[in-house]
Structures are given as structure tokens and as C-alpha cells.
Amino acid sequence: MAPSLDIVFAALADPTRRAILSMLLEDDMAVSDVASAFPMSLAAVSKHLQALAEAGLISQEKRGRITWCKLEPDALREGSVWMQGFGMMEAFDLDAFERFLERELTDPDAARPPD
């Protein structure tokens, strides 16, 4: 069963997780290599990786003593289809989408036309 869009978008809402996904676009990476790219503890990075795995955006595989992370791009397909329903056929800027949602959620009157 595929993760819900809510779980996928919640995972994508964090800039660290988006950065991890960008890193995994290049190639599979060991957890320790992912962690070395961020100024946080291995435990903190592991929590981000767990959130991405729960959303189905990455998979993790133990090879010997090393856990490897692999991007699972098909997990984005349902979200992409959903966004295309709004006429967003071009590449989607998730950072801009996050800023838009933040504005809408913090000030719901901002989008309302004047009376």
C-alpha cells in the first residue's frame, strides 16, 4: 500500500529531508555519508531518514555493517499527478510551495479579496 499524500508532503516539508533527497539523486549513499553532510547528530539524521522511509521516498538496505539509502522516485508520482490537476505541468519548486502554504496557513485572510 502506497503512503498517503499527507505523509509524503509532510516528509517533503522539511528542508533537510529535501536536501537528503537531492543528495540521493546522484547515487545510493551510506547513512554515515548522508549524516556527514549535515551539522547535526547521526541520531537526528536517522530520524529524517526514517521519516523519508515511512513516506516511501527512500528505501534502506543493510549490506554488512553499513546501511545504505536509495531514492524511490516513484513515491513522488501520486503527488505529481495531484499537483498536475492544478495545472502545474512544469517542474515544481517545493521551496516556493512551502512558502505559499506557510503564508496561507498563517494568514488565511491574505488570499481573501477585500469586501
UniProtKB/TrEMBL annotation:
CDD domains linked:
HTH_ARSR
Domain HTH arsR-type: start-end pairs: 1-93
Could you tell me which SMART domains the record lists for this protein?
Answer: HTH_ARSR
Q: What is this protein called?
A: Winged helix-turn-helix transcriptional regulator
| Pfam families (alphabetical) | HTH_5
Q: Which NCBIfam families match?
A: HTH_metalloreg
Query: Which GO MF term does the entry hold, naming one?
Result: DNA-binding transcription factor activity
Which species does this protein come from? Rubellimicrobium rubrum
